[in-house]
Amino acid sequence: MAEQASYLNDKDVKDFTKDIQQFNLGPLWEAIPEVMNKNPEPHAQAYLWSGELMEKKLMEAAEIFTPERGGERRAIYFQNPGLTYRKPWGQVSTTQTLYAAVQLLLPGEEAPSHRHSQSALRFITEGEGAYTIVQGERIFMEEGDFLITPKNLWHGHGHLGEKPMIWMDALDIPTIYSIGGTFFEPYEDGLQQPNVPDNFSEKRYRGGMVRPVGDDKFDVAPLANYKWDRTTAAIEGLMEFDPDPNHGFAIEYINPSTGKSANPTMGTRMQYLPDGFHTNALRHTHSTIYHAFKGSGYTVINGVRFDWKAGDYFVVPNWAWYEHKTFEDSYLFSVNDIPIMDRFELEKVENYEINHGHQKITSEFKSVFR
Ligand code: GTQ
Ligand code: FE2
User: Fold this and answer.
1) Does ligand 1 lie within 6 Å of residue 130's CB atom?
2) What is the pLDDT of residue 163?
C-alpha cells in the first residue's frame, strides 16, 4: 500500500472526510492507497486443507445430512480465511474469483437436477459407479477423470456403485456473484432421466485431437469427461522431452472444438512432477487452487513452505511467488482464473530471477487441524 500523505491527519481534512460520508459520498484521498495498488494485493491468502480433514468432515456430514432429511447436495467448500467479510460463512470464495469444494455421494443417493449461470467442473478423487447427468447424458466418473458442467445446462448426480464417491467441485461462484449475474433454477422432477446413450460425448470425442464431422459449431464444450488414461497418455508424450522449468510436464484441458479452455471462465491443468523435481519460482496475475492427486512434496508461497501429500488442497493467491518441490512422483491438478484475467487483458507473468529461481524459506504453514 502507498504511504498516506501527511495532510490526511489535518483536522479540516478529517472533518470534511467524515462530513461527506453522511451523504453516501466517498473520499478518494482515503481510498486510493487501498484500492489502487501498485501490484495485485489479493485479500485471498495462501492456505492448505488436508485430505484427512476433508474426509473426516464429509463422513461426519454423511451422518447428519441423510437422504431422509432431503436438502442440498453434500459439499463442503474451501473458505479462504482472507475472504470472510460476509458473515457468517464468508464470501463462499476460495480465491477472489473461484470457489472449490469437496462433494460426497453415497451409494444409492441422488442429487437433484438444477441449472445455473455459474460454470462448474469436477475432478474425481475417490470411487467409481457414480454418474453426473448433464442435459440428459449420464457421464460415469472414475478416479482422475476431469468433467465439465457448462453454465445453464441441467445437471444432477446419481450413484449406482458400492462405495462412497468423492470429488472436487470448482465453480466461478464469486465472479458471477460480484458481477450480479447469478441465475439458478431447480429441475421440476428431481433427477433428470437420460435421453442419450451413457458417456455419449466421451465416446464421440475418443479421438482426442479430432472431432466428429458436423461438430464445428458448438457454443458449449462438446466433451463432458476428460478420462484419466487419456490425460496420462498426453503427459507421457511430453515426458520424452525436457520438462518446462516452471511447470514440469503439464497439460491444459481444452475444448477440442475451439482450442480454448474447457470452461470459458476457468483454466484447468494436470501436471506431473517427478520425484525430486523443483520448479523455478514465478508469479502471475491469476490465482490457482491445487489438488495434490498423487505423490507428496511442498510448495513455497511467498517464502512460506506448505507441505502437501496426495489428497490435500491448497491455494496460491494472485501475484504470489511460488515454486513446487516433490518427494515422490507427483500429479497436481489445478484450477485457475486465467480466462477471466485474459478477458480483461490483465494476465502478467514474472520469473523469480535471483537465487537460481528459488525463494528463501522463512516459515512453515501450520494447519489448525491435526
Ligand atoms: O454439484 O451441481 O459444490 O451446483 C456447488 C454448486 C456443486 C453441483 C457445488 C453446485 C454443485
Ligand atoms: Fe450445480
Assistant:
1) no
2) 96
